[in-house]
Write a structure and sequence with these properties.
Elements lengths: L3 H14 L8 H8 L3 H13 L3 E4 L3 E4 L1 H23 L5 H14 L2 H11 L14 H6 E3 L8 E7 L4 H10 L6 E7 L3 E6 L5 E5 H4 L2 E5 L8
Antiparallel strand pairs: 1-2, 3-8, 4-5, 4-8, 5-6, 6-7
Helix pairs in contact: 1-4, 2-3, 4-5, 4-6
Amino acid sequence: MLKESVEEYLGAIYRLRTGREAPLPLSQLAGFFGFSVVSVHEMVLKLERQGWLVYYPYRGVMLTPEGEHMALALLRRHRLWERFLTDVLHVAWDEAHVVAGQLEHAAPGDVTERLAVFLGEPKACPHGAPIPPVERAAAERSLAELDIGMRSRVTRIVPETGRRLQRLRALGVLPGCGLRVVGRSETGVQVALGSASDTVWVLNEDAMAIWITLSADEIPSG
């Protein structure tokens, strides 16, 4: 599992950016945590080097597909634990929020899914916020995460920069297109588009920004 501090940042960025398309200003992230902007800036640069987010100077941050994937998994754990604490243990919902904030970092994914089954797969936390479905976490990921031979379909490009969009348009890697990973190198991912036998190389930095949905037979069943 990730360090708790990393998960806290990813979860906070996802929550604070919900409903907006622009990058999240560092001042808002600093205000959320009660940290200085300088401290937040240092952490953001560290997370960017690790591939969890993209920092746009003077504008703010956006999560990469890997970062959003982790944030959704964190929110799922948090909201399921809130449900358990309030519904089963009858803990007050304000206290449940605090305790769930501790349990979300300690419980492994398989325990969380057993909890979901025990609770009857609830759709929302006690405060009404939706619980991210496990299907989304399992099926949606970045091209950079796929193994050789796996087939998928591009759903979106995020973060979208002008140069990145130009490169991908030139390659034919666009939302809606199907692709299959056929090779890898230190700098990129080799993919075959659709049913064509020709392949193209996608830079690693672009592969991390390409959201894909796995073909049905590629999604783990358990």
